[in-house]
Amino acid sequence: MNAGSVIEYIERKSLPLRQPNDLQAIVDAVGDAQIVLLGEASHGTAEFYTQRAEISKKLIEQKGFRFIGVEGDWPSCYEINRFVKRYPGAAQSPEEALQDFNRWPTWMWANREIMPLIQWIRDYNDRADNKRKVGFYGIDVYSLWESLDAIMRYAKETGSEEIERMARAALECFDPHGREGQAYGLAAALYGEGCKDEVVQLLTEMQQRRQRQPNDDEAALSAEINSLVSVNAERYYRSMITHDGESWNVRDRHMVEALTRVQDFYGPDAKAIVWEHNTHIGDARATDMAAEGMVNVGQLLREQHGRENVFAVGFGTHRGTVIAGQEWGAPAERMVVPPGRPNSWEDMLHEAGGGENRILLIDRQAPELQQRIRHRAIGVVYHPRFEAGNYVPSIMGERYDAFIHIDESSALEPLEVAAVYS
């Protein structure tokens, strides 16, 4: 790799990021794209949340984007959706709406950085007519039991005895596993004690009901997607025991399917913003994931809608602090992120930008960006002393359409919620 040519290219092509209005360059570059993917190099960096919020507000105001889908649980995120749309019985403040995020890592959404955006969307919706109100949804797959609980509540509220019966049967099937996904996965994969039939029947019934009684009832959409979660979560937990790569694919395909169903609800021309980690939104075909048979959201959406209709923005940092845990379920810690390793993407952006935050609009034809460059990815479990394993070889010209570099980043501020470690 010719690091010098990459640094020189970034020096020529990148723009300074000094104030929110500088992000207009990203909004303009989006053009007529129907889906904008906003990434992050970690789930615990304040600036990734605040900069994505500024871009999202501009996309909503200037280009009519209708909803935000995030790497979060549907039931918990739906509490935010209820708040921003002032549904009866909804939370009365952003902080109250975030109290439902009790699944570890709680800080991903129960943090102070997301609160101003939630309030902004509510205020925006107060000024908008019903056909222009903006939604907020979680499109991840982990909330198996919470989604079944939500379906039970929906069935009781609507008097749907058959749905209630089927949801209860599914819960009873899963109950012996103590609401532990790994415990269920072991029993299903190794001993054949699965609950696939129960959740598939439930989803089929929910889909048929919506087809028989088409309406714009968002509660019915929520119940259907909770049913979809139960089907794909069952597949996810079962496959993670026998084939970890396949479990990744189950998860990312689910996120695309959930996003598609929400888009269909809003209408064929609805525009969507997606917030997820770079490893999900940056095209997998530009990394070594492809050789392992893995796909991701960015790749699937480009294949489904065409590259011109999907605009992917990666985010990264040279150094700073981050919130993460030392192991799964461990307490959140404020950790130091060491400087980017020599000749990494983060190091070259730092050198080219002279220590400034930068915006790079990517020209996929640029030969400098067709090289494989190591690019840092930080997970919710993080060990800074083992940094070498956190870098993913990436062809940046193929992975993203733009990139935002925060030279020195800071850890986000978690809210206090009671964590559940399933």
TrEMBL record:
Gene3D superfamilies: Biosynthetic Protein domain, EreA-like (biosynthetic domain), EreA-like, domain 2. CDD domains: Ere-like. InterPro entries: Emycin_Estase, Hydrolase/PRTase-associated, UCP036794_erythomycin. It comes from the Bacteria. One of its GO terms (biological process) is response to antibiotic. Pfam families: Erythro_esteras. This is Erythromycin esterase family protein. It comes from Paenibacillus xerothermodurans.
